[in-house]
């Protein structure tokens, strides 16, 4: 397979370096970067060959237990590319960056998000946990600062005081979350990846991402559950 055997070039190296510094990139940004890297290093550029280009990098990353993964933003359904670490669960990777009580706050926030109806936890509920931490209690102000850092580091994203897991976090932690929250974490019935922000069928309990819901019901006059065929009770985004 020619694509599989393609040599790693300076264009590939530059692409990897830029992606590393961002951690995650939207599909359109990644496509721009692909073109830019090929042009700078005078390497053959084909606009529809980004995935092959990335495969070449991924082959070189295998021995390092790293991988560039393609995923979807739960908010708008757009493709994203992220550099993920396969060697250690993300919680252990986070352990080198954060204090014990910060990690405990993150885990508790993740509990709230995953156990919620809509995939969001409100700041009030999160901040109320701060003085119940087992490792070392946090003052509200301190906890607010820590939440800000989790947003900056792309573990959480925030909208009007509501927190959810960042796209990058979901891409990195999917396996971890599915194994830790076996009874509560759901996969999307349409795209089969982990669904945090989702709508759930009230009859059979299947979940669908909001962008997947929008796409699936686009052509249907009366929205019915793809699994049990009961009426879909939610507002279609």
Label the overall shape.
globular
Q: How much is the average pLDDT?
A: 92
Oligomer: single chain
CATH class of the largest domain: Mainly Alpha
Helix content: 40-55%
Q: Secondary-structure element order, as H and E? A: HHEHHEEHHEHHEEHEEEEH
Number of strands: 10
Tell me about the largest β-sheet: 3 strands, antiparallel
Question: How would you describe this structure in keywords?
Answer:
single chain; 237 residues; alpha+beta; Arc Repressor Mutant, subunit A; Herpes Virus-1; 3 domains; three-stranded antiparallel β-sheet; 10 helices; zinc ion binding; Non-structural maintenance of chromosomes element 1 homolog
Question: Would you mind describing this structure in some detail?
Answer:
This is Non-structural maintenance of chromosomes element 1 homolog. It is found in: Chromosome, Telomere; Nucleus. The chain has helices spanning 2-5, 10-22, 27-40, 50-61, 90-95, 100-115, 123-129, 140-152, 167-180, 210-217, and strands spanning 24-26, 66-72, 79-85, 121-122, 156-159, 162-165, 186-187, 194-195, 198-200, 207-209. The chain is α+β, with helices and mostly antiparallel strands. The chain folds into three domains: 10-64, no CATH class; 91-181, Winged helix-like DNA-binding domain superfamily/Winged helix DNA-binding domain (Arc Repressor Mutant, subunit A), CATH 1.10.10; 185-236, Herpes Virus-1. A hairpin with a 6-residue loop joins strand 7 (186-187) and strand 8. Helix 2 (10-22) packs antiparallel against helix 3. The longest helix is centred in the middle third of the chain and has 16 residues, at 100-115.
């Amino acid at each position: 397979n020619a694509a599989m055997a393609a040599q790693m070039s300076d264009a590939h190296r530059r692409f990897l370096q830029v992606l590393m510094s961002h951690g995650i990139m939207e599909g359109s940004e990644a496509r721009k970067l692909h073109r830019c890297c090929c042009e700078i290093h005078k390497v053959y550029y084909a606009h529809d060959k980004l995935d092959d280009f990335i495969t070449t990098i991924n082959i070189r990353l295998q021995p390092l237990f790293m991988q560039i993964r393609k995923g979807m933003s739960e908010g708008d359904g757009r493709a994203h590319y992220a550099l993920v670490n396969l060697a250690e669960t993300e919680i252990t990777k986070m352990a080198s960056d954060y204090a014990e009580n910060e990690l405990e706050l993150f885990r508790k926030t993740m509990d709230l998000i995953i156990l919620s109806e809509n995939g969001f936890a409100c700041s009030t509920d999160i901040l109320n946990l701060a003085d119940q931490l087992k490792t070392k209690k946090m003052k509200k102000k301190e906890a607010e600062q820590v939440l800000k850092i989790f947003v900056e580091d792309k573990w959480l994203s925030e909208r009007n005081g509501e927190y959810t897991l960042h796209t990058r976090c979901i891409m990195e932690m999917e396996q971890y979350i599915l194994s830790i929250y076996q009874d509560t974490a759901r996969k999307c019935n349409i795209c089969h990846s982990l669904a945090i922000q989702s709508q759930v069928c009230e009859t059979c309990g299947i979940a669908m991402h909001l962008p997947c819901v929008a796409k699936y019901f686009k052509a249907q006059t009366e929205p019915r559950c793809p699994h049990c065929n009961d009426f879909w009770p939610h507002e279609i985004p």
